[in-house]
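Bumping my old thread because nobody answered last time. Still need a sequence for this structure:
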């Protein structure tokens, strides 16, 4: 009792691997300020690996006010026996930002992560003024 065996280290590596892989591939989750064109509302969007989704799963879209997306993710989680909880953190922030940007929100050009968000989301602004 008290010593770690090879099995314990392997289990630890398996449990930590989604976080390490996500951070290496997508970078840390970073906030980016988004503004609504018509109402002037301000929200925080995120880019990078969604460690919050890894920890809290389908509650993340629920907390962010996306009830339909939360229900869809809950159904997928149930049918995949939880495997989707390891996949969605890689894609959730990008999908969330794409939904926001197509719903009338835009990136705040004064935000520190503005250029990083543009590159991450593949937004081209050459010759376009807002």
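Sorry it took so long. Here it is:
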């Amino acid at each position: 009792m008290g010593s770690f065996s090879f099995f314990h280290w392997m289990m630890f590596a398996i449990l930590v691997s989604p976080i390490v892989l996500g951070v290496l591939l997508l970078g840390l989750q970073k906030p980016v300020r988004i503004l609504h064109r018509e109402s002037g509302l301000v929200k925080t969007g995120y880019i990078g690996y969604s460690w919050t989704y890894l920890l809290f799963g389908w509650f993340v879209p629920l907390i962010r006010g996306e009830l339909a997306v939360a229900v869809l993710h809950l159904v997928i989680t149930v049918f995949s026996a939880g495997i989707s909880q390891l996949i969605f953190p890689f894609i959730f922030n990008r999908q969330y930002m794409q939904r926001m940007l197509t719903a009338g929100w835009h990136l705040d050009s004064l935000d520190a992560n503005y250029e990083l968000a543009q590159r991450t989301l593949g937004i081209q602004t050459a010759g376009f003024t807002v």
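The chain has six helices and three strands. Let me know if any region looks off to you.
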